[in-house]
Write a structure and sequence with these properties.
31 strands, disordered N terminus, alpha+beta, about 950 residues, disordered C terminus, binds 1-deoxymannojirimycin, 4-stranded antiparallel β-sheet, 28 helices
Length: about 950
Amino acid sequence: MSEAGGGRGCGSSVPQRAPWSLVAATAAFCLVSATSVWTAGAAPMSREERQKLGNQVLEMFDHAYGNYMEHAYPADELMPLTCRGRVRGQEPSRGDVDDALGKFSLTLIDSLDTLVVLNKTKEFEDAVRKVLRDVNLDNDVVVSVFETNIRVLGGLLGGHSLAIMLKEKGEYMQWYNDELLQMAKQLGYKLLPAFNTTSGLPYPRINLKFGIRKPEARTGTETDTCTACAGTLILEFAALSRFTGATIFEEYARKALDFLWEKRQRSSNLVGVTINIHTGDWVRKDSGVGAGIDSYYEYLLKAYVLLGDDSFLERFNTHYDAIMRYISQPPLLLDVHIHKPMLNARTWMDALLAFFPGLQVLKGDIRPAIETHEMLYQVIKKHNFLPEAFTTDFRVHWAQHPLRPEFAESTYFLYKATGDPYYLEVGKTLIENLNKYARVPCGFAAMKDVRTGSHEDRMDSFFLAEMFKYLYLLFADKEDIIFDIEDYIFTTEAHLLPLWLSTTNQSISKKNTTSEYTELDDSNFDWTCPNTQILFPNDPLYAQSIREPLKNVVDKSCPRGIIRVREESFRSGAKPPLRARDFMATNPEHLEILKKMGVSLIHLKDGRVQLVQHAIQAASSIDAEDGLRFMQEMIELSSQQQKEQQLPPRAVQIVSHPFFGRVVLTAGPAQFGLDLSKHKETRGFVASSKPYNGCSELTNPEAVMGKIALIQRGQCMFAEKARNIQNAGAIGGIVIDDNEGSSSDTAPLFQMAGDGKDTDDIKIPMLFLFSKEGSIILDAIREYEEVEVLLSDKAKDRDPDTDSEEQPSSENDSQDQSAEQIAPSSQEVDLVDQESPEESSLNSEPESSSPADTDNAASVSASEQNSNPMENHETTSLDGECTDLDNQLQEQSETEEDSNPNVSWGKKVQPIDSILADWNEDIEAFEMMEKDEL
Ligand code: DMJ
């Protein structure tokens, strides 16, 4: 293994400085001993089993990659449900997510270096030839600069890095003459116009053919970009400069990073999520380690590793201290405001932050990495996958899961750091869940809703670039890989860049950089290396002892948010402030407290009650502050309540040959008919009704009798259709949207309303499918005639035997297993007890919690009949085991209070003006959150 020029060496004493050249790829230097010293804790996994799991990963990769190549290539991505390529412009737009697609065979390029890691050298050689032969980078298409950089430029550079490695070995790629690098350079030049701003921050989008300025470009008017979008370029751009000698790329990426650093909020040392690329003003002032910021931090640390520039380490450490001070509330990582970092900006976390434990391993801070990873694993165990967003009490906030690799990435790094076989078991669970819930006959499909198990017609390229790499490496021994992985660093898309670049072409001009070089003090190197070296030999149960207290953190948490509590008034014996969940509009004592807090109660004509706060009317600044929090809680409760009035989505699962339960379609529920969450699922063959709209008595009752009738949307009420098919003897109905091309990928799901009359006579279950989902069933009828489906609230288990010895050796084998599992149609499934009612929101988009705000007052409406909103859904007692987590946090904040002034924000008595100013800022932030996208 070579020592790269940039990093400092790691000695034998503790604390030590990081051998970054070695730590870079796998944090292995600190860990080599860890893997060999493991003696206790989770049972070790035998070499045979690891090999078996590694082979399973290879088989899964073949399934994903093979189907992409066969059915989608040269398109950018595979659509695994309809088994075809996703071509931009030919499918309904999905918004920003489509900006990754540039008609440049994205999945092929993103998969290049995965092929080599997985030992598929022959396939790699073929793939490189295809890229050189087929890929055009000059398309008239507007793409995301960030995505194109990490996936395409990174993919080409990763492919080039391994191509030259293979060529040097003398067997493969002997014909290779830096062609991928030339393509990378061409692409690099295409991205450069995006940096034409006074700040040096790039525009978020660029037209590959026309750049930014030309009228044909259809871009260049944007004013904002995300921090990660502007701050995740340095690895690829520096590698491009150092590979080619063209210094401009590294200079531009450095300039953007320098600007972000200058703009950090100076008192908190945090950065916001979105920045104005012209003025440098923060547009969104919330700050976390997930969506919108994540890889900015990652690239600061890795830029230090790859380029050996100490200023990057210093910046990373400054931010890291701020993250650990304000955002980290182990095991949680919660967004805060950059100007008011003691104030949480959200009550939920997003799935992208799952990369952070892996970064903490690279930093050498293992304990919080173990804690957060364990918390995330508990969430996964509950929902099979990490939902895109989940609340602080671990309810699903946004139910989608596009097969993101971040958790697998952290699992890999933690295994390398601890050598604890527990992490191999975690990896095994990930593999099982992917095969069980995401595998479809034509690849792996993203989860539309982790609660129902329904699919989306989507397989993102990062699934091949990252997931299979990390899973394979997790189980691989050194000799299983044909090169030394520790000589490379992983980019954020898991592309491999060689560490020797740190000593190549170093003459990059720093004349544009704003920061001065200073000699770093030793504290910058704290935590690097020591943990595993000193802890594991003495205590092999170290990681387990950190995980153990978190084992029940998800199951035992209360279905409500965690709110930092004002400790002082508690301890001085004063009554705790009134909480929104306890409030009753009929309780005179509560009304008195409201008045003290400056909150007035207005009875609206329609029977609702409106709460308005004027902080200025509060009895004291403490009361005003209590009032603000009360209002904030009320807003959250009110919006939570609105969500709970909605029915959750349902699932239509095709169970007959050749689907065998593997394809699950997201369906809208009906407000009438059989409630599938309370009753048996309904299973039956499908038949189209005549007339197809189901608006009159059916003329083909014999065809739908005992079956599930398919009816087209439109021309009459849903309830009328239901009655007509019920009268014809149907046991259920599926209404298919008449709006051609509609899909639950692009349109919000809704519930079918009744007809305003009594619908108790409708006894059969009714579900709604958008046109695209519906045509999957209609196509299946055309092809296979007999199509059987299952209507339920959650997809039923497809593959009970994933724990068994072998992965299905052939498609037929696995089909048989699945068929058996799906089998008894009379099986009673009662999921009501398994899922808390809080999880049952139809709309899984991030909730909006923006109050009306006029005249420095905040108002929120609450129903008078339900003056205590929590009574309706707080099914768990606030005492006993359910309060564990809150108590823990409260205790923790109490014990930490003296040493960490940040946790006792309630102590500070703020003047009312400042409270109002803060409140307005919070409202602004909440309004921003409404627009929030992952
Ligand atoms: C990947 O494209 C990269 O890891 C990126 O940094 C953010 N996340 C996606 C996958 O989830």
